[in-house]
Predict the structure.
Amino acid sequence: MTAVEIAADVRAGRRSARDVLEQHLAAIDARESEIHAFNLVLADEARAAADAIDASDDKGPLAGVPIAIKDNMCTRGIPTTCSSRILEGWKPPYDATVVQRLHEAGGVIVGKTNLDEFAMGSSTENSAFGPTRNPHDPTRVPGGSSGGSSAAVAAGFAPVALGSETGGSVRQPASLCGVVGVKPTYGLVSRYGLVAFASSLDQIGPLGTDVRDCALLLEIVGGHDVLDSTSIPAAVPPLLDGLDDSVAGLGIGVIEEMTDRDGVEPAVRDAVRAAAAALEAAGAHVAPVSVPSSEYGISAYYLIAPAEASSNLARYDGVRYGLRVDGDDVAAMNARTRDAGFGDEVKRRIMLGTYALSAGYYDAYYGQAQRVRTLIIRDFERAYQQFDVLLAPTSPTVAFEIGAKTNDPWAMYLCDVCTVPVNLTGHAAISVPYGTGDFGLPVGVQVLAPPLGEPVMFRVARAIEERAPRAG
Ligand code: GLN
């Protein structure tokens, strides 16, 4: 059942929230030891929340809907680890704004999901607590960094989940797990209580089994928040209303640089073309479009994101949070804590970022990357003068085998070649499952939209979903 259906049933008294929850906890019991979607299952807390909803007269728009939360969002009194040893033992003293809004809407948080440490990665293999497995084939990765949230939805542990994006971490694992994943416009969803990776790129986004559930979740968690200075001072535009409206007359551009590039599997390219053809048959105007500077997205991203990360992660010094490994003096304690607490990928990013920001190299690397970022924004603005939305692959490939890319960071970074440009521009995008590719594994098609273009983006995504061949 979808979140929309569950909430309607619980509100109408046809089912109890407790009954819905027990069914999902049973699914978790049956398969979690194999999948490892969660760092922590919150069965007791969830039962108490479900019972409170059943007893309440005002059940809310998410009444009794089980939700999985990526473990980089703060939950008051409940460990929040970012899948890192450095936060060992830390319990946030407050809830993230999104968590608070889910509670208020009647949602039931079932657990905190696994991720690549501090959301750095594309496979969830960089977790300090071991990898998550893809429910479609447990020898393969679920994608990342929101691999736990994506796998939880794909495995039926929860109908919906929240993930976070810095460079594709909701859309790419959604694509690999055969679910829907959304990267909202920067500033549409509050980042208050989301542990920072790269603040100018980070954004929380919904995952679900269908487009409608993601629209519902975004309507609930999005909208202005005074606690986040980058929050857009406006409500979320209506997404559910108009979701099923016709796409006839819309202009849809297929991004050539992403669809035809080397490394995109033929089945993935075919899925994008088939989705475009289906939209054309529904009356949309479809044409190829060039966004030339998007080619440089990965290069700019791997300077900007590590630069911001090196600054954000300076706060883990053994004094304020979690782990402390003692040393002879403060500097030694600080170094030993960070050495023991951070994994290899996090250390690699801190070193890359520190180097890119260093006095002699700042202009050549960080400054240049920011100029490229501006060029990418301009290219997309030009594309949106001609088209309402754009289409592209989400991930160039289907889910790969565990271990296949762990020794080759550059190969891992290329997983995000089609998603990273949207984080750099701050625009919106959604990944929708569209049939299967190699090995019968799910393929995702991406719909990109201009800032606050979510209403039309969701409408096109819904039209694609309706016409998609079913994944095996
Ligand atoms: N895979 C990208 C990275 O490793 C994006 C991660 C993300 O979006 N959080 O940085």
Residues 119-122, 145, 165-169, 197, 305, 416 surround glutamine (CB under 6 Å). The mean pLDDT is 97. The longest strand covers residues 428-436. The two ends are 18 Å apart (CA to CA).
